[in-house]
From TrEMBL:
Topology in the lipid bilayer: Multi-pass membrane protein
Taxonomy of the source species: Bacteria, Pseudomonadati, Bacteroidota, Flavobacteriia, Flavobacteriales
Name assigned to this protein: MFS transporter
UniProt organism field: Aureibaculum flavum
TM stretches of this protein: 15-36, 48-68, 80-100, 112-141, 153-173, 179-199, 229-254, 266-286, 298-325, 378-403
Location within or outside the cell: Cell membrane
Keywords: Cell membrane, Membrane, Transmembrane, Transmembrane helix, Transport
Length: 421
């Protein structure tokens, strides 16, 4: 194996442009979600309303996920991504208008609330295509032999967006209000569009253009199910995120439990991503490919412990540290999972595999938000968070027992094979 080069992927110009585009997109989406969470809870003071935000996005995302994967594998990736970013820009501008007092003058709180839910619902359709398209475009920009390094940098930039978006959202709500915060979201969506224009069109590597959609979907599902390492990684992360979605309840912790206001909310919301970002930059120098399966299981177990500590804490800085450490463990999990998907997925099936991943893992964030909101309403906020952390620990134990190939996974051999190509 060649000596590790922590900057290997950054030596490709288009990959750097891709990182700028991805950062702007993730920043805008993350900031928008946090601002909308704050606005909705301010309108309703009902924890279930926070869960409904996630539910509104996940319904169309899950419904279209498999069909989106088929379309992504059949189409040119840059053009498809351009349409996704343009549609997101339209939605972000719509949310900006909905929070403009002069525009919604005379509207009831319920009418504003339902309009927000509707735009979030439309955003779910974009989500169905966005993840698989980015995943597929990524693979066409860099050589296979540096996928692990590229996945680390791509995930790091994703986390930077998740760090800075929520942090700026919390502070900007306090400084300039919800309305102008959403104007910033729209501005970053335009930056993402402009950045993408500097990436060239890519070839379509699927040899089965025009294949029957149901046959195509069946092939994608069959591949994921038969590749136990991918299935195990997706299952583990899906259930862990589903029950560990404490971040959806952060407006409640910030306003009603820790009493730290919008600035404290921004710090809490950014803490997990800061931890994840730190571990991702570190992993560029110290790859996580050796004994990757055990590291994945250990990381998600640690994530569950952190969620329980956060739920039980009534001290702001203990809560911040618990969320920070949950980000560290989640960052390790994300890097390993993305590397598994990139190394184990054939080029002509990337859209469909990414769609299955998005359907179960990506959408589990929103389903987790709904689960957290529902359980918080039924059993109380603190109990709901502790319950979610405990379920995460149980999931790790069961996954380790039922997926021995994942437990024994070592990715160094896969990397060596790609270096020979």
């Amino acid at each position: 194996m060649q000596k590790n080069d922590p900057y290997a992927a950054l030596r490709f110009k288009e990959f750097n442009i891709f990182l700028v585009m991805r950062f702007a997109m993730v920043f805008a989406w993350s900031m928008q979600f946090v601002v909308i969470e704050w606005q909705v809870y301010s309108l309703t003071k009902d924890p279930l309303s926070l869960g409904i935000i996630g539910l509104m996005e996940v319904i169309p995302a899950v419904s279209l996920a498999l069909f989106a994967g088929h379309i992504v594998d059949q189409k040119e990736k840059k053009g498809l991504l351009l349409k996704c970013l343009l549609a997101f820009s339209v939605i972000s501008f719509g949310l900006f208008l909905l929070t403009w007092p002069e525009v919604v003058l005379g509207w009831s709180s319920n009418k504003i609330l339902y309009s927000i839910y509707f735009l979030v619902f439309l955003g779910g359709f974009i989500r169905a295509f966005l993840g698989p398209t980015i995943f597929s475009l990524f693979a066409l920009i860099v050589p296979k032999k540096i996928y692990p390094n590229a996945a680390t940098w791509s995930s790091s930039v994703w986390q930077m967006g998740v760090v800075l978006g929520p942090a700026l959202a919390g502070f900007s709500i306090n400084w300039i209000g919800v309305h102008w915060s959403l104007c910033l979201v729209f501005a970053f969506s335009i930056i993402a569009l402009i950045s993408l224009s500097f990436i060239s069109k890519k070839p379509i590597l699927n040899p089965k253009i025009g294949e029957n959609v149901f046959k195509s979907l069946k092939e994608g599902i069959k591949f994921v199910y038969s590749t136990k390492v991918i299935l195990g990684a997706i299952t583990l992360d899906m259930i862990a995120v589903l029950f560990g979605g404490a971040v959806a309840l952060l407006p409640i912790f910030a306003q009603d439990i820790l009493h730290v206001g919008s600035e404290g909310f921004g710090i809490l919301r950014a803490s997990p991503a800061v931890g994840a970002l730190l571990i991702m930059f570190t992993s560029a120098y110290f790859p996580l490919t050796k004994n990757a399966g055990m590291k994945l299981l250990a990381a998600i177990f640690g994530f569950g412990i952190c969620i329980i500590v956060f739920g039980l804490s009534s001290w702001f800085w203990i809560s911040v540290v618990a969320l920070f450490l949950s980000g560290v463990t989640d960052g390790i999990s994300m890097i390993i999972r993305q590397t598994i998907l990139q190394l184990k997925t054939p080029d002509h099936m990337r859209g469909r595999v990414a769609s299955v991943n998005s359907m179960f893992v990506g959408s589990s964030n929103e389903l987790g938000a709904f689960e957290s909101g529902l359980t918080a309403k039924l059993m109380g906020t603190v109990t709901a968070v502790v319950f979610g952390g405990a379920m995460t620990l149980l999931t790790v134990g069961m996954t380790g027992a039922f997926f021995p190939k994942l437990r024994k996974l070592d990715l160094r051999k896969d990397i060596e094979e790609h270096e020979k190509e």
